[in-house]
Amino acid sequence: MKILVTGGLGFIGSHTVVELQNEGFEVVIIDNLSNSTTSVLDGIVAITGQLPLFEKVDVREKSALQDFFKKHNDIAGVIHFAASKAVGESVENPLLYYENNINSLVYLLQELQQKSNANFIFSSSCTVYGQAEKMPITEDSSIQIAMSPYGNTKQIGEEIITDVAKVSNINAILLRYFNPIGAHPSAEIGELPIGVPQNLVPFITQTGFGLRKELAVYGDNYPTPDGTAIRDYIHVVDLAKAHVIALQRLLNNKNIEKVETFNLGTGTGSSVLEVIAAFEKVSGQKLPYKIVARREGDITSAYANTDKANNILGWKAQSTLEEAMESAWKWEQKIRS
C-alpha cells in the first residue's frame, strides 16, 4: 500500500517513514525543505535499505498539491506532519503558524474528500489541552483556551478534521503527542533543527557539544517540586511506531468512530532539571545552564494518561528518559564528527 507522509523529512516524519518501510509500506514523502534537508533520505536508506519516493511540494500551494494527487491517485493513507511546531516562535510570528498549519490542512483535506475512501492520521499535540486542570491528562480532559498560536492551530485543525469527516469518506485518527525527543538508535536520523533550536533537547545536546555557550532554563518558580516546568518526554521511535499502528487500525477498518483521538506519551512527567540530569548522566559531563525568565506561551505541567492508547491501540512507550537522551547525544556527536 502507498502511504503519503507530508513533512516526511522532518524529525518525527523521518522516523515514521522508517517504521512504515519496516512494515512493508510503500512510502511517498512530500516536504518543502523549510526545516529539513534531503540528506535525511540517506539516513532512511542506511536504516531500511529502501529509498522512499520524495517530491519537493509545499502543502500551502494548492495547485502543487492538486498536481501531486493527480499523479498519485492510489494513495491508501496519509500521515500529516507538515507544519510549524515551536511554541515560542508561534507567539512571535502567529500569522506564519496560521498559514502553515491551517491552510495546508484545508488544502490536503480538499483533495482527500474527493476520494471514495481516505485514511488520515493527524499530527496533533498536548498543547490542545492548554494548562490542564488535572494530571495526568486524559483524552476526555477539557480543551482549554490555547496558550499559544501553535496550540490554537492544533485545536482548530482537530475541529476542521472532525467537521469534514462528518460529511465525507475521510476516517481520521488524531494523535496528541506530548514531547518527542531522541533519535534512531542507529544515529542515522535524528532531530536536526535549522538555526537556533526551539526545543529543549537539541539545545541541551548542542550545548553539551560546545556549540552553545549555555542552556537557558525558562523559569524556576513554577509550582513544581524543583520549580521548573514539567513535560512528558517520549522517545521519537516509540512515537513513530504508534503512527503505524494507528494507520493499520484505519486500513483494517478497526476504528469505532469516524474520528478517534489518542494521547501519545510515557505517562511520566519530567522537569527541565531532571532532563538536564539525565543528559549529564548519559554524557558524563556537566551542562552549563542559567535560569532566565519564563517564556510566554509555556505552561506549568503536562503529562499523559496513556491508558486509551495502551488498551485500544495496543501501543505503549518502551524507552526511558535516559535512553532517549542517550540516543539524542549519540546523534549529536555523529552529525558534528
Q: What series of H and E elements makes up the topology?
A: EHEHEHEHHEHEEHEEEHEEHEEHH
Return the average pLDDT rounded to an integer: 96
Number of strands: 14
Strand order of the largest sheet: 3-2-1-4-5-6-11
Number of distinct helices:
11
Overview of the molecule:
This protein has 337 residues and is of the alpha/beta class. Helices cover 40% and strands 19% of the residues. It contains eleven helices and 14 strands. The chain has helices at residues 11-22, 39-48, 62-71, 87-92, 94-112, 149-166, 200-209, 236-251, 272-283, 307-313, 321-336, and strands at 2-6, 26-31, 53-56, 75-80, 118-125, 170-177, 179-181, 215-218, 230-231, 233-235, 259-264, 270-271, 289-292, 301-302. It has a seven-stranded parallel sheet, sandwiched between helices. A three-stranded mixed sheet has the order 12-9-14. β1 (2-6), α1 and β2 form a beta-alpha-beta unit. α7 (200-209) packs across α11 (321-336) and α9 crosses α11 (321-336). The longest helix is centred in the N-terminal third of the chain and has 19 residues, at 94-112. The chain is globular and about 55 Å long. The two termini are 38 Å apart. The mean pLDDT is 96.
What can be said about this structure in brief?
With 337 residues, the chain is α/β, with parallel strands linked by helices. The chain has 11 helices and 14 strands. The radius of gyration is 19 Å and the shape is globular.
